[in-house]
């Protein structure tokens, strides 16, 4: 199906705005109650829902709880299961490391070994992140000719190392033995392509062990999840869009870069995002505006604060409408119900606003209202097609 | 997608109950009326529908009327079109023959031939089942060295033969010429693997013809649909579940065995099923409870009696809830509207009850109410994903 869409792409200057309230989908606090979105006072979004087409989307699929990166890939028009993002890349994106095509990113765990080199603790007593940062600083002394090495702390005992150079590949097996009392594996190539990277990883580990030898309990490293950037066709290539991301948090800039978006840096919140939207309005045809704090307050378990974040975004909506976008799509990358304090698999409400839409029964922007909307429950990556179509960017199929 | 789910499986001790009212979906008796399920007084199911998530499912696909075996495969989480069950195996499962891996099951039709061996009636005058049983008894005298042979009546002129032995295969073509006035084909191997079985089938037919030679009009046999058990990954393997079936009828135990369920034998009805559920509660994580008579009364065309069966199941529901299952899924394997006296392709109502579900508009358990529920019309095999997710048995996809 995807190729069908690529063949129909019409490049025009109509503008699509994708407004994402991260983790917006929710649940009632008590039986019979309303969700966060249903509770929030959202006159602007409600008006758009009445005029527009509504529904719910599944970012990955039935029953699957989305991570942030695949949840966003879906919103950018890509079926996430077609583009698995390896563990090392996830780690690098998660700390906003500017990973490039050809880089190989690998998760590093600081660990403890005994005098024979056997692993006694795969997590080095779960050291704090500050300690991890200090050790990464130490390991930045590792040098390998022809290869740039970046080692950065992630969280607790976890770090990420990125190798940059010619001829690298992620075809290398983990060294983590997944058990204690045994020695780590040597990094082994899983195909001929992986040979050079396996050697590079071997050198990295040997130098790291030397640097860490007096640092019990953090006197070992285990590496796992060798990963290259997935080869995702850009949004320009696939959808004929000139896309830009207006986000505060590095993770979302990272996943946007994966699909070839330009990035506006140093945006501190909705005011800055509104200003950047206006400033860049003539330069792009697709604007991804991301609001993180709906998700953050959901993860905190703070129902009221999540409601307040939704209301902040509602107040921001007129500043988008002032620019008269041809298409406005408002949704989330997944649900983060405050009562669950976590991402969840529940379908995510969306509204599509443009000219020439089919009226439906959705009377406001909320989970139940969207369930009564035109579209029912649809795959997340199909939203891009609806947006492209509403922006007259898809030609007729057949005569 | 299926592999994605397998990669996300979390094994925990949360318990899922799948309560199947066979053929529960229905139609009104007269225009403007209610369906069987809508007519039934079901306070317990209605309460669950209000609290839970509702929808309709298509066991096989749009417009496809499900047989019992594929209808249940869908409920067990398998897309039935990925696991075709050959005609011989369907026949063997249908009479609850305990077919084993490696067996080859074949449909047998008693037929009539003339003195030259040409088929004059492919159905031997549609003899009654009792006559068929008597002929199967006669044919049980067939012996082939190294092969166990089981021949059992199915219905009317139809029987099934199961060959058990080393090196058998279903790569053998039908002998039924699908026409009269011609001789049956010899059983021919369709690949090298089928050679031994073709010879076995040839011997079986020759001995059968000898035993039947004075039995006009049932003096011939035609065989078709050579089939082995399909290789279906078990529910343990695919979903990390420890499953058990609590069913009265052999067919449902048969299809459950196909996906590796344990079977509790000698259950005579809902009381025994409730007791068995309680007794086995600590031993399993997935319980399939099957009620046959909703379908039977539908096939009888007895609307009122089907309503009464639904009400019996409703009264049984509190005995499940007493055990506090983490997830309860109530549905059917297909529709059997009494007005049609047969399975039908109509979507089947379902309700999912668990913690942390999205409230929806379903105000009772019925076809129209479920159509207004959260999920709309979804593929049947996706219900397992919703149940696994609600039981916290699926990890997040990506970071």
Notable characteristics:
homodimer, 399 residues, Alkaline Phosphatase, subunit A, 8-stranded mixed β-sheet, 13 strands
Secondary structure layout:
Two copies of one chain form a homodimer.
Chain A: H1 2-8, E1 16-21, H2 36-39, H3 43-51, E2 53-58, H4 68-75, H5 87-94, E3 104-113, E4 119-121, H6 129-139, E5 148-155, E6 158-164, H7 195-212, E7 220-228, H8 235-239, E8 243-246, H9 250-258, E9 262-263, H10 270-279, E10 286-291, H11 293-300, H12 303-321, E11 327-331, E12 348-354, H13 367-371, E13 377-379, H14 383-390
Parallel strand pairs in A: 1-10, 1-11, 2-13, 8-9, 8-10
Antiparallel strand pairs in A: 2-12, 3-4, 3-6, 3-7, 5-6, 11-12
Structural class computed from helices and strand pairing of chain A: alpha/beta
Instruction: Write down the CATH topology of the largest domain in chain A.
Output: Alkaline Phosphatase, subunit A
Q: How is the biggest beta sheet of chain A arranged?
A: 8 strands, mixed
Number of individual domains of chain A: 2
* Overall pLDDT metric of chain A: 95
**The CATH homologous superfamily of the largest domain in chain A:** Alkaline Phosphatase, subunit A
Shape estimate of chain A: globular
CATH architecture classification name of the largest domain in chain A: 3-Layer(aba) Sandwich
Q: What does this entry look like structurally?
A:
The structure is a homodimer of 399-residue chains. By secondary structure, chain A is of the alpha/beta class. The first copy, chain A, folds into two domains: 240 residues, Alkaline Phosphatase, subunit A; 140 residues, no CATH class. Helix content of chain A is 32%, strand content 19%. Chain A contains 14 helices and 13 strands. In chain A, the strands form two sheets. Chain A has an eight-stranded mixed beta sheet, with helices on both faces. In chain A, strands 3, 4, 5, 6 and 7 form a five-stranded antiparallel beta sheet that branches. In chain A, β5 and β6 form a beta hairpin. The two termini of chain A are 18 Å apart. The model of chain A has no long low-confidence stretch (mean pLDDT 95). At the A-B interface, α4, α5 and α13 of A face α1 and α14 of B.
């Amino acid at each position: 199906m995807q190729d069908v869409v690529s063949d129909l792409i019409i490049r025009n200057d109509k503008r699509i705005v994708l407004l994402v309230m991260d983790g917006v989908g929710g649940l009632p606090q008590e039986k019979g109650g309303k969700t966060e979105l249903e509770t929030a006072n959202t006159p602007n979004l409600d008006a758009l829902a009445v005029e527009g087409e509504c529904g719910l989307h599944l970012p990955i699929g039935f029953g699957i709880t989305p991570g942030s990166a695949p949840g966003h890939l879906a919103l950018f028009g890509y079926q996430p299961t077609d583009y698995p993002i390896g563990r090392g890349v996830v780690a690098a994106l998660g700390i906003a490391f500017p990973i490039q095509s050809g880089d190989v990113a690998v998760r590093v765990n600081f660990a403890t070994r005994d005098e024979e080199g056997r692993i006694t603790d795969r997590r080095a007593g779960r050291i704090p992140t500050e300690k991890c940062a200090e050790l990464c600083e130490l390991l930045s002394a590792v040098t390998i000719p022809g290869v740039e090495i970046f080692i950065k702390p992630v969280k607790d005992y976890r770090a990420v190392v990125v190798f940059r150079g010619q001829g690298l590949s992620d075809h290398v097996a983990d060294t983590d033995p997944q058990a204690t009392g045994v020695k780590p594996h040597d990094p082994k190539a899983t195909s001929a392509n992986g040979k050079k990277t396996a050697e590079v990883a071997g050198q990295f580990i040997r130098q790291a062990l030397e640097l860490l030898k007096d640092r019990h309990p953090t006197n070992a490293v285990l590496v796992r999840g060798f990963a290259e950037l997935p080869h995702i066709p850009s949004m320009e290539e696939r959808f004929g869009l000139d896309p830009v991301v207006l986000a505060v948090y590095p993770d979302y800039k990272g996943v946007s870069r994966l699909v070839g978006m330009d990035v506006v840096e140093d945006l501190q919140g909705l005011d800055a995002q509104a200003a950047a939207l206006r400033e860049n309005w003539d330069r792009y045809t697709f604007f991804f505006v991301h609001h993180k704090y709906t998700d953050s307050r959901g993860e905190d378990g703070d129902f009221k604060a999540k409601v307040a974040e939704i209301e902040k975004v509602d107040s921001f909506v007129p500043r988008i409408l002032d620019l008269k976008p041809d298409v406005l799509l408002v949704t989330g990358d997944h649900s983060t119900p405050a009562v669950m304090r976590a991402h969840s698999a529940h379908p995510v409400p969306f509204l599509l606003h443009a000219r020439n839409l089919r009226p439906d029964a959705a009377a406001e922007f909320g989970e139940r209202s969207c369930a009564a909307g035109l579209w029912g429950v649809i795959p997340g990556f199909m939203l891009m097609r609806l947006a492209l179509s509403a922006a007259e960017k898809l030609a007729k199929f057949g005569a």
